[in-house]
């Protein structure tokens, strides 16, 4: 008899800027974003470097997904090739399953072949998931026969973002979808939802500048920085708790680098400290 019962808890690491991701026994040492510029009909290759930091062999599986995210907190990992700007169908990779020896290293080779389509423009992307296979998982290569086991296992996976830029093409457009205050915990937090409505990814840094009725500056307040793919959205948060009570003109700025800036003007009236 070979019966196994368990609960598998999964977690996902998606890297924006981190060069190395490591949890459990596996690390992705070559980073979690693989961006390359190409032309229609062009191709390129690369590798994803892996390391087993543990003292036992670690089985790993690699598989493709699409990836979308939104300001309301949703993260969608769809079937490969279903997202409007997915490049999943352009990517081949190997191996799809491997076992990394203790303290050993391995690599996943990938190749990207861009279709010869002159209508392609902007940014296309998808993910290769790198997932450690628990020894308790029914997927594990080595299973102990004639044994009943019960337990809970935690599985960590890493989302390697595979990004193809079609030259310097594609429009750069940003839309301010919603602006509101979150007064949780007595703070005056301005939440700004921003959507990329263009065809090229953007990496805006957001800030808010407040001015009195007389035009005097009441301060500049940073709201963070984030990457936004076409058709996705993010939520920025700027703490305006330090602004004294009164009425202010505010300029919300999303600086995408170079000459690419987007702005929205607002009027805020603060009745008391920490409250709009």
From TrEMBL:
Protein name: TRAM domain-containing protein
Keywords: Signal, Transferase
Region forming the signal peptide: 1-21
Superkingdom of source: Bacteria
Matching InterPro entries: TRAM_dom (IPR002792)
MF terms in GO: transferase activity
Domain TRAM: 182-267
